[in-house]
Amino acid sequence: MERILNAAQMRQADEDTIAGGMPSLVLMERAALAVADELERTGWDTSRILAVCGTGNNGGDGVAAARLLAERGYSVSVCLTGNREKYSEQMRCQLKIAEKYPITFVNSFDPGEYTVIIDALFGVGLAREVGGVFLDAVRAVNRSGAKILSVDIPSGVHTDTGQILGEAVKADLTVTVAYKKQGLLLFPGAGCAGGVILKKIGIRAAEAVPAESVYCLEEKDIQSLPVRDESGNKGTFQKLLIIAGSETICGAAFLSAKAALRTGVGMVRIYTAEKNRTPLSVLIPEALIDTWEGEEPDGEQLQLLLDWADAVEIGPGLSVSGFAEKLLALFLEMNHLPCVMDADALNLMARNPGLWEKVKFPCTITPHVGEMSRLTGLSAAVIKSDLVAAARNFAMEHGVVCHLKDARSVTASENGCCYITVTGNSALATAGSGDVLAGIIAGLTVQEDRLPAPAAAVGACIHGLCGREASRKYSRASAAAADLLDEIAGFL
Q1: 3 state SS of 488
Q2: Largest CA distance in the chain
Q3: Are residues 168 and 317 both part of a single domain?
Q4: Which of 82, 125, 196, 424: CA 20 to 30 A from 408?
Q5: What is the predicted pLDDT for the residue at 232?
Q6: Sorted alphabetically, which Gene3D superfamilies does this protein's record hold (predicted)?
Q7: Annotated binding site: which residue ranges?
């Protein structure tokens, strides 16, 4: 897994590396060399290159890259932006060197004047809204018609959250150094980054990794899952109980159960409304079916089911009826097994926040932003403004694993460690997709000791990959939740 840094961590890593004896100008030269090399590899029309540079060290990276490209025979110009009295020491040094090279310095530029623009206005330290001459520069870059390469992070993107600080450069390619940054992975910043290339330049974060670190989980991280035990039987591979499906919704139970079976669970048992027995028996004959009837949950029946299971998933299609509320409360009183809570279970928890006191077992929750808003009382806008903080704060406060679903999802563990999922696409934005995800996570929960990260993070990675494969067959617009099911096998 790849560790992802925020602005403060990146700044500290930079300072520690310099304090360890690495000159800052050497790091800047390495960053500039990475930019120049990657630009040459793009295959773009590089006949007229412009580096748009700010006043800080990111601007210095841009000036140095322009010099290296000029050395290689390219026609290069540099547009200096901002008050020259505020130039950093390294920026001044790079300008002094660059003045001796065949570089044209300009104060402005017109659309169509350059074929490539290197965006070196702001780096990871930007925390204020872009304004003044810098806003003018961002707008000019975006309307230039040129191919755009951003240095480290597109100017105007918040390094920690991916939020847009007023306006941001929309790059075709971002060359980021040392470590990827959270803002490159989280939308809307991810949408401004284009392709992201990571280049190591000698900066190293402290070896002591804090508990509240952030990682990126990608396909390569799930390719080394342990091989299934050939001497095992269905009991060896654990038993999952899924409590799902009200009288009008059996599809959610089917999607979750089928997804769980595809993860390799030995047995799946569905506890659902009696009206769902026949359709579920036809849809998924591999699953055991138990049902409820009447207005009061049956404690003895529930206890027998919990005694049978190794883990539980509760919530998909459950409804928020009075019966469902009573069933959830009874379940929380009786359960001791690892549990995945999804959908209506979370909506019921939001209605009755005192129920969190009853969660005394290992628990993973899988809210989308709307459900998270109901759980926390925060607006969707506030949650989306910092997904990592929202997931981490809830997980640590309630002692659960919180998988917060969005275009880029965040899984936060009880100790604050977070995982960002980048494998998905818009094919997953369809009804029932969350039920499939919950089933995958629940199926992996009973196998968590063999996983490289929490089941929710691994499950989300697999779910995203399934979306990718389904969209290749059906297109992102036409892929349905059921289409994801057959893709699970390709990643386990």
Answers
A1: helix
A2: 86
A3: no
A4: 125
A5: 74
A6: 3.40.1190.20, YjeF N-terminal domain
A7: 57-61, 119, 123-129, 152, 155, 252, 317, 368, 405-409, 434-435
Residues at the binding site for AMP are 405-409, 434
Question: Cα 359 from chain centroid?
Answer: 26
Residue positions in the annotated binding site for (6S)-NADPHX? 57-61, 123-129, 152, 252, 317, 368, 435
Q: pTM score, two decimals? A: 0.95
- 113 is written with which tokens? 């004047």
Q: Are residues 277 and 170 in the same domain?
A: no
pLDDT (0 to 100) of residue 453: 84
Helical ranges in 156-217 per DSSP H: 182-185, 189-193
**Digit-coded pLDDT (tens) for 74-85:** 999 999 999 999
Which residue, chain included where needed, has tokens 């026609």? 75
Could you tell me if 159 and 247 lie in one domain? no
Residue 196: enclosing H or E segment and its boundaries?
Answer: strand 195-199
Closest CA to 406 of 378, 392, 425: 425
Question: Whole-angstrom Cα distance, residue 24 to residue 32?
Answer: 12
Judge if 202 and 223 occupy the same domain: no
Instruction: Give the strand pairing for 363-365 and 339-341.
Output: parallel
CA distances (Å), origin 258, targets 214, 236, 313, 426, 485: 31, 19, 13, 22, 7
Tokens of 120: 């070196």
- Domain of 129 in residue numbering reads as 2-209
Q: Is the peptide bond before 210 cis (omega within 30 degrees of 0)?
A: no
Alpha-carbon span 193 to 196, nearest angstrom: 7
Q: With CA atoms as reference, report the closest residue to 137 among 154, 124, 153.
A: 154
Identity of residue 413: S
Residue 116 lies in a domain: yes
Which DSSP letter does residue 167 get? -
